[in-house]
Each structure stands twice: as structure tokens, then as C-alpha cells.
Design a protein that fits this description.
- The chain has 516 residues and is an alpha+beta fold.
- The chain is built from 17 helices and 21 strands.
- The protein is globular and about 60 Å long.
- The structure holds 1-deoxymannojirimycin.
- 1-deoxymannojirimycin (DMJ) binds next to helix 16.
């Protein structure tokens, strides 16, 4: 039924002649008439080629490319897992950069690569500890997406072996994992330290672990993350989330199995937990308790609307609404990180329980998107990492630009659902500023102060710049059938997995509906 053309190298992966998907409840469909903008798309490919080329030249096999004391080099700041290399693989593949893709994949598979060393117990580097969350979204996510795009079984085996060694992270009294990973001689060896786990960390695993279970036919992985979901879902039913209804505190005590006091937000420490409620519901076949995932998502959106959504009036705005998301119990900043919310709302709208709800989600998505785009209205044309609103004035509160993807990610989703050219234009303006101020000879680096001209570089090329920022930009200028959003789900690091749940399971189908 669904025709997947893998036109490897010659052109990027395409889902050809896809029938128009339409939710019977929400009656919202993806724009189907988007054609590629080859000129702009090729410019993004060139950016990726330059970025990966520099990584290859100066930091091959290490986590990230950095610039320090006048020299470009590499850094193992993420535990020595070749983070940029793994994070880049699917972007290279999608962009048709075959030579780079093949070389990187070959490196990963060979004896002595960082991942092989971890599996074989030869790499001591994880004694220095790394984040379970980053490992999951970047490394496991990156490997799973390569498997789904190419069918490469070796890559799946790598993911399988890595996940197997980190299972002991779930050995806490509650079964909610610790946030830290460390290994000695190929064995998990972390001493339980801080009992406080972070919602965005333990709550952003099920998409990867359920996908791994499905692909390997080994149910063990998803048992762990299903258990985590059950705990969170039960506490939500009992209204023991230490936050207003639908929302959750960002801290959880892994010993007592209860939420601890903390901030509720759609930013640091919470963000992707909410994103995975809708992504798991839309994407995973055999999702246990599927309707609960959907209802928790809708409850969270209602909680956001009641408690966190704020309006501001941009001077000289022509009647358009601008919204942003604050924190509970108090807060006055909006982080760039929360600019993923419009994209998440678009996914929520695609098959919302009612048309009214779908329209409301799209409306809020557009309103928040306007604020995110406005954040780029700075001397450099780059967004600060966070802003605050005082007397209707948006003011940068953290002026650094980390090369974050969230705004272009949401522009991608809004463009795919509305087909409104404004989103392509806005993304292009953002990319022009990135090109002007991030790209130095040999490195795309972030900048320390977006208000200062010329900006000073921050000396780091983030691996998510290649995994997400450039990937979403590329997809914005691709046609609407490339990585169709009813065929692929992007994990929170921008790694695409093949959707295994049929549209008819996600929303009720009428007799004769041809969507399965
Ligand atoms: C990325 O690693 C992921 O998008 C994550 O979910 C949040 N932060 C960064 C980029 O800002």
C-alpha cells in the first residue's frame, strides 16, 4: 500500500504517491502540494557537507568539534561515544551524502570504534559518566534511524548490545532510571547517587525502547519504559504530580517512586516528556494503554493553556496574536527550548479527538511560533537562548545562541500542515543569519551574545546542529512526500523512525477507509 522508494545516493529517500491522510475526527490533513525548493535545499546540503567535513578533518570519532585557543579540534564531552558522527548519520543519508555516510558507518562498525569498545568492555571513557538521556536520544536514536532508513541489521545489533548494557540503570526501588550512565569493563557500574530523576530524562525513552523491542523482537526493552509510563500515569490519575492538573513537576524521587516539588514547564527538565506522549501514541504499534497516552497529552495541553500560556503585544503588530509559555508556580522567561511546542501541537492536531480541539492546537501553535520567530529579531538575526517579557517588551535574558533546532523544527511541522510559504521564508531568514555568524573557517560554532556585532563564537559545534537544525531546514525545502509525517516519527533528537502504528489504530476509521 505505502510505497517506499529508496533512491539511495542519487536523490534522498522519498515516500512516493502517498494518499492524502485525513483524520475522520479532526478533518485536518497534511499539505500535499509542496514542491521542493532545490536551490535552497542544496545550500543546506552544502552547510551539512562543510560541517561534517570539518568534523571529519579535526575531530573524527570524538564527540564534538570545538575551537579552543585558536585551534580547531575535538572533545569527548558526551562520554566518548562519537556523538557527532552518530547524530549525523541519518542527516547524511537523507541528504544523499553517500560517501560521508558510508565512511562514517564503516567507522562505527569496525573494531576499535568507540561504540564497539564500549560493548566489548575496552573503553574506560564511560567511567567519566554520561547522561542516560543524551545517550538514548542521540546514540540509540541515531542508530535506530539508520536501521529504519537503510535496513542495516548490524546497526540494529549495535543498538541492541548498547541498550542491553544500560538496562541496570532501571534497577532502582521504583524502576524509574537514574539519569547517569557509567561503565567499567563493559558493565554498568554507577553508584546510586542523587535519588532525584528528571522528568524529561526518564520520560523521553519509550519511543526508542519500544522501537528497539519491535525491531529486535525482544520485548524486554519496552517492559522497562512501559513500567515507567505506568507509574507516571497512575500518579496523574491520583493527582499526585505536584503540579496543576495535566502537568507534572520536573523532579521524581526514584527511591520513593513519587514526584518531588519542582517546576512544571515545557522547557528544561520537562519538555520532551510531553512531546513523547503524542509521538508514542501516533507512532507505536501495540502501544500498551494507547488511549491513556493520548488523553495525557490532551490533558497536558489543557494544563498548559490554563496555567502557562501567556500573551504579549508586539509593538506595531497588525492584530496577530503572540503567545509564549511560562513556568509554574512562577516564572517570567520563555526559553528557545520551548519553541518545540508548536511542532508538538501540530502533531496533536493531526488526529485530535475533535475538530475544535485540532483547530485550537493549530491556532496556539501559530501564536507561539510568532513569538519564536520574533526572538530572532536581534542584531545578529540569531535567537537568544531565553527571553523575558516586561511591559510587552521582549528582552533577551540569556544571550547565548547554542545552534538550537526547536524553531526550525516547529517551522517544519507548521509548513507541512499549512503549506503556508511564510514558514519557508522565516526559516530561510534564520538560516541566512546562521550562515553569516555561525560559519567560520572550519567550524559552525554557536555565539556567546546574539545582541553583539560581530558576535564572539562559543567554540563548539553542537552535534544536534547536524542531527536536527540542518535536517529540519533541509526538510522544509523538500517536497511534502519526503519523510511524510504519517510514515515517519522524529525522536526528540530529530532521528526518524518508521511509524509502526496504522492510521486506523490511531483514530477510528470508517468502513471502506483505505488508510490501512
Ligand atoms: C536536543 O538535544 C534535543 O532536541 C533535546 O530534546 C533538547 N535539547 C537539544 C537541542 O536544543
Amino acid at each position: 500500500m505505502v510505497c517506499l522508494l529508496k533512491i539511495y545516493n542519487a536523490s534522498p529517500i522519498k515516500v512516493a504517491s502517498y494518499f492524502s491522510l485525513r483524520s475522520p475526527q479532526a478533518n485536518i490533513s497534511w499539505a500535499s502540494n509542496i514542491t521542493a525548493d532545490n536551490v535552497r535545499r542544496d545550500e543546506i546540503v552544502k552547510a551539512m557537507k562543510d560541517a561534517f567535513g570539518s568534523y571529519k578533518k579535526f575531530a573524527w570519532g570524538l564527540d564534538e568539534l570545538i575551537y579552543k585557543q585558536g585551534e580547531v579540534g575535538g572533545d569527548n564531552n558526551l562520554g566518548g561515544v562519537s556523538a557527532t558522527l552518530v547524530d549525523s548519520l541519518d542527516t547524511l543519508y537523507l541528504m544523499g551524502l553517500k560517501e560521508e555516510f558510508d565512511e562514517a558507518l564503516q567507522y562505527l562498525k569496525q573494531d576499535g570504534s568507540s561504540l564497539r569498545n564500549i560493548i566489548e568492555g575496552k573503553q574506560k571513557v564511560l567511567e567519566q559518566r554520561m547522561s542516560l538521556f543524551e545517550f538514548n536520544i542521540r546514540i540509540l536514536g541515531g542508530l535506530l534511524s539508520v536501521h529504519d532508513l537503510t535496513g542495516d541489521k548490524d546497526v540494529l545489533m549495535l543498538a541492541d548490545s548498547l541498550a542491553e548494557i544500560i538496562i541496570p540503570a532501571f534497577s532502582t526501588s521504583s524502576g524509574v532510571p537514574h539519569g547517569t550512565l557509567c561503565f567499567k569493563n563493559g558493565t554498568y557500574s554507577c553508584e546510586p547517587s542523587n535519588p532525584q530523576a528528571i522528568l524529561a530524562e526518564f520520560g523521553t525513552m519509550h519511543l526508542e525502547w519500544a522501537t528497539l523491542s519491535e525491531r529486535t523482537k525482544n520485548p524486554v526493552y519496552e517492559k522497562y519504559t512501559n513500567h515507567v509510563f505506568k507509574i507516571v500515569s497512575d500518579l496523574a490519575e491520583l493527582k499526585e504530580t505536584k503540579a496543576p492538573e495535566g502537568l507534572f513537576s520536573c523532579y521524581f524521587d526514584v527511591n520513593s517512586g513519587t514526584f518531588s516539588n519542582g517546576v512544571a514547564s515545557f522547557s528544561f527538565y520537562s519538555d520532551s516528556f510531553y512531546e513523547y506522549l503524542i509521538k508514542c501514541w501516533r507512532s507505536l504499534g501495540n502501544l500498551e494503554n494507547a488511549e491513556r497516552w493520548r488523553s495525557m497529552f490532551d490533558d497536558a495541553m489543557a494544563g498548559m493553556k490554563t496555567n502557562l500560556l501567556r500573551r504579549w503585544k508586539r509593538p506595531h503588530a497588525s492584530g496577530e496574536v503572540y503567545e509564549w509559555v511560562t513556568q509554574w508556580p512562577r516564572g517570567d522567561t520563555f526559553d528557545h527550548l520551548a519553541c518545540f511546542v508548536p511542532g508538538m501541537l501540530v502533531l496533536g492536531a493531526a488526529e485530535a479527538p475533535t475538530l475544535e480541539l485540532a483547530e485550537e492546537y493549530i491556532e496556539i501553535a501559530k501564536n507561539i511560533m510568532r513569538t519564536c520567530v520574533e526572538m530572532y529579531n536581534t542584531p545578529t538575526g540569531l535567537s537568544p537562548d531565553s527571553v523575558s517579557f516586561i511591559n510587552n517588551q521582549m528582552k533577551a535574558s540569556s544571550k547565548i545562541s547554542w545552534q538550537r533546532p526547536e524553531s526550525v523544527e516547529s517551522l517544519f511541522y507548521l509548513y507541512r500542515i499549512t503549506g503556508d510559504e511564510i514558514y519557508r521564508e522565516q526559516a530561510w531568514t534564520i538560516f541566512q543569519s546562521m550562515k553569516k555568524y555561525y560559519w567560520k573557517p572550519d567550524i559552525w560554532e554557536g555565539c556567546i551574545d546574539v545582541m553583539q556585532l560581530p558576535p564572539t563564537g562559543d567554540g563548539r559545534m553542537q552535534s544536534f546542529f547536524l542531527a536536527e537544525t540542518l535536517k529540519y531546514l533541509y526538510l522544509i525545502y523538500s517536497d511534502s512526500n519526503v519523510m511524510h509525517l504519517d510514515e515517519w516519527v522524529f525522536n526528540t533528537e530529530g532521528h526518524p523512525f518508521k511509524i509502526s502504528k496504522s492510521a486506523c489504530l490511531r483514530s477510528s476509521c470508517k468502513d471502506g477507509d483505505s488508510r490501512v
